[in-house]
Design a protein that fits this description.
alpha+beta; 2 helices; single chain; SH3 type barrels; three-stranded antiparallel sheet; two-stranded antiparallel ribbon
Length: 74
Amino acid sequence: MNKHEFAICINNHGYEVSLDVRKLYEIVADADAEKHGQIRVIDESNEDYLYPATSFDRVSLPANVIEHVFLAQA
């Protein structure tokens, strides 16, 4: 099973067009970015970009919630 990770935006200062505070974003694994204090997420453009990791809080979601998230996007 594919593991999906998510984070909630807690600060969009400087990225107001690309990120919404309190919104859930899917994380794209990027170990190199994490070494530099960044996180790669799929933002409002529906593309993945790097942002400061401090702008997000990672969250754990139950499998059924993740399923609903992806169904809502379809």
